[in-house]
Amino acid sequence: MNQQLPPVAEVTGTHSGLGAEIREAFSRALARSKGGAQLVVTRNGETLVDLAGGSISQDTPVQVYSVSKLVVAIAAAHAHGHGVLDLDQPLAETWPAFDRDAARTITARMVLNHSSGINAVDKPLSLEDLVAGALDDAVAAQDPHWEPGTEHGYGAFTFGALMSGVFKHSAMTSVQQYVAEHVTGPAGANFWFGAPDGILSTLAPLTFDSPILTEGQVAAMMAGRAIADGSMLPILTDSPGFFSDRRVIQSDWPAMSGISTARDLAKILNAVLGHGTEEPVLSTAELQDMIAEQRHGMDRTLAHVTRYGSGVELAHGHFPYFGGRSFGHQGAGGSVAAVDPDSGLVSVYTSTHTASTVGGSDAALTLLAATRQVVNQW
User: Fold this and answer.
1) CA-CA distance, 101 to 166, in Å (whole number)?
2) Which of 308, 268, 316, 310 is nearest to 290 (CA)?
3) DSSP assignment letter at 28
4) Beta-carbon neighbour count of residue 14 at 10 Å?
5) Which residue in 130, 138, 151, 157 has the fewest CB atoms around it within 10 Å?
6) What is the pLDDT of residues 113-171, one digit of tens each?
7) How far apart are CA 54 and CA 37, in angstroms?
8) pTM given for the model
């Protein structure tokens, strides 16, 4: 008797013997997810899985949103280690707009670890304002929401405008150019801040769920502890419309406009660890400086506990990565990049679907846990 089977969560790509269990975990994640996803996991530079499924292939460029911040953090660590930037120098010494009482103590390190106090701008900005570059002026004029260095709050959008200014005024170059020359170039990886015309037609299609707040977020908003950001107004009003707008897709915003594949992001992170390149993108000292804990506690933007190094997320309760000294970054759309410098594990998951809680997807969390377990047990 012929029996019709249910649909299959088909996966394309390759896996090693050790990666077989991870591949099945990825297939199960696809069965519970929307849209498409990619997953690359390597250990000490050797590929365990290189997979894709759903609506995209392994070569489909994906908007990875705030995973961009991880790439910027790597560039900043490199620039600091090579004497191009002094992350601990007050911005006021090279950026005249910060030479005022309220902002004079802010450093690039504070921008990177989200303690500058300029996690948000008071001025409401429209989509047209953002595309025209108005956020650059807004962050330069914004007074900190707390004494710089004493608290922290995730600068979802302001991070990029501030780091653009840091590179422009202190390194005399753009963050995008520095990334290309010293990070993605040596890694041999494709990564764009904003989509060039040539890849627009190949970008992964996006889907969105309506946002849902947690109890803690609502309580923080009602008590005035969570700070609203005027630059996020167009996103909160109409996320699908905002992120599907061609002007947004092609804007070169360092905080959130990164476009890449899981395979290319894994190349970048392996290059940081010294795999696949003649020498590591970051020296041991530069890497340690980037992942040293800078902030840990209640986040004035996200309204839950977060933990940051210099531009990177460190393992914490909401997103444990690989635990220990692991680090990475998550992005709206569900994408996550994770690195464990001690085990040599690199995992990059890209997704085309933004869930209700935004940020790293549940699928990514499941796959990080599965990868850690598989590697540890063998």
Assistant:
1) 19
2) 310
3) H
4) 12
5) 151
6) 999 999 999 999 999 999 999 999 999 999 999 999 999 999 999 999 999 999 999 99
7) 6
8) 0.97
